[in-house]
Amino acid sequence: MVFSRDIPSPASMFSSYASMMGYIMIIKPMINTIIPSPVQNFVFSYLKSFAGSRSSTLTLTIDQMSSMYIPDELYDAAQAYLSTKISPNSVRLIMARDPAEKKVKLYHSDGEVVSDVYNGIKLEWRFSANNKNNTMAEEYGQSYLGNFQRESLELSFDKKHRDLVVNSYIPYVESEANVINNNRRILNMHSYSHVTQTWQSVNFEHPSTFDTMAMNEDLKRSVIEDLDRFVGRKDFYKRVGKAWKRGYLLYGPPGTGKSSLVAAMANYLKFDIYDLQLASVQGDAHLRSLLLGTKNSSILLVEDIDCSVDLPTRLQPETETTLPLAAFQVSTPLTLSGLLNCIDGLWSSCGNERIIIFTTNNKEKLDPALLRPGRMDMHIYMGHCSFEGFKTLASNYLGLSDENDDTHPLYPDIKHLIDGQVLTPAQVAEELMKDEDADAALEGLVKVLKRKRSEPEKCDDESNMKKLKEGEKIIADAEEATLRELEVLTPAQVEEEELVDSQYAHVMPSLLSGPSLMAQSGFPGFYRGGRGIGPG
Questions:
Q1: H or E segment to which residue 396 belongs
Q2: What tens digit of pLDDT does each residue of 380-428 get?
């Protein structure tokens, strides 16, 4: 062979390798002893950066934990975004279930690579997980030891696109992650606990939506448009110098769907609900601490504000109240000014994208200071069930179409009977639930509507009969009293009575036959003294 003399023999190669490793084993301890570790790391990092500077690829690393050992929001957003980019060819994935989400989630495992394209730019994500048995002080400033798994995501792309990736692609990933998390997230209902002194939450699974609400269509549309306008105006609120919040007042008779509308708004916006019971608030300072414990993108609900607590105004003296659960301290009660400061004062700016909802059955009982714009921006009247609301309920409970007014032969009768303040949506829904057969359910509803319609007329007749009986009783009592007086009169007094009666004989028949006597307790214009009847 021509080249056999130029290639070293395996024995010589092995001998050279062994000699080199021997020198390294001798030199390495000397280097570690003479050169400090920080200097070594600096030299190695400099050589690595010098070698990598010739590469056109830039790699950004996103750690799972921030420098304060707090979960990094960007890492979580990237994980949610990449969970929708899982390739069918993936051979190893991580599966986890979050109690706050509906379904299990799949994540990439160590070493998995995901390719993405944004505005024609090719990007590559790589998941990395390293197990380290070291002190946390080296990385997070902690002083304890442990075996920790350090997770991170590496994003690689061409260097010339750095500004576009940082300023455009990363915000796009975060916005897409918010949409994904909202679709996955289970809403929570929060209430304050005196035992734990914190907000406690349960899963909020109320099925109410705007599609199932028995509301006027124009009112429903205006509420939806107002909500969309609110959540999309973050920059607008910042520009005009207002806190990013909005207040709604829901008022109307009981059973008209105020609580259902709150649930529909929460489901539409994917907002948690904080149910604030003002009776459990121990004072203005306690209210502030409760509101600071609420999250952004949430609804603060105060139901039946007119009867939940008596809010003293600035002109009323403050009284001391004892705390619940046999607490050993005394606090001043919640005041109206304290509530106003929290919903519209400086404290209202401690949070973003918040909605405040008050509900009441009696709007006129509320202090006007609570109702002005900036506190309750939109007043929504929830009235009795209209024909449009009935069609929605009939579609929900009986499966009938709500597009036409003649879906069922009884619809014209119901349309005529239900107009006005006859039944609330809750009462209509109760009637429709009594029978699964549409004909039977609607017939029962028609009977109830006719009975409700006849009740005012029946009440008027009964009122007139009651007044007539009261008038007859008054006349009978007056005649009886007259007879009793005549029995004890002397002959001279009897003669005087007869003289008086004859003088007013032409007046008495008209008084006795007049309708005004029926509703009064005595003869108008007359009084009875101890000895007879005379003009008053």
A1: helix 387-398
A2: 999 999 999 999 999 999 988 877 777 788 999 999 999 888 899 999 9
Per-residue pLDDT tens digits for 330-347: 456 777 878 887 777 777
User: Which residues of the chain carry a pLDDT beneath 70?
Assistant: 1-7, 48-55, 66-71, 88, 90-91, 96-110, 131-149, 308-332, 456-473, 475-476, 478-536
Q: Rounded to an integer, what distance in angstroms lies between the CA atom of residue 359 and that of residue 303?
A: 5
d(CA 396, CA 411): 16
Kindly report whether the global pTM for this prediction surpasses the value 0.70: no
* CA proximity to 370, closest of 361, 382, 358: 358
Query: In angstroms, rounded to a whole number, what is the distance separating the alpha carbons of residues 37 and 40?
Result: 5
Q: Cα–Cα distance between 424 and 254 in angstroms, integer? A: 8
Alpha-carbon gap, residue 367 to 309, rounded angstroms: 13
The tokens for 60 are 């950004």
The rounded distance, in Å, linking the Cα atoms of 184 and 177 is: 10
CA angle 502, 506, 510 (to 5 degrees): 135
Kindly list the distances between the CA atom of residue 121 and the CA atoms of 169, 170, 192, 212, 418, in Å, as whole numbers in the listed order: 10, 13, 49, 45, 62
Q: Which residues pair with 105 in a beta bridge?
A: 96
**Could you tell me the maximum CA-CA distance found in the chain, to the nearest angstrom?**
171
Residue 308 · residue 278 · CB < 8 Å:
yes
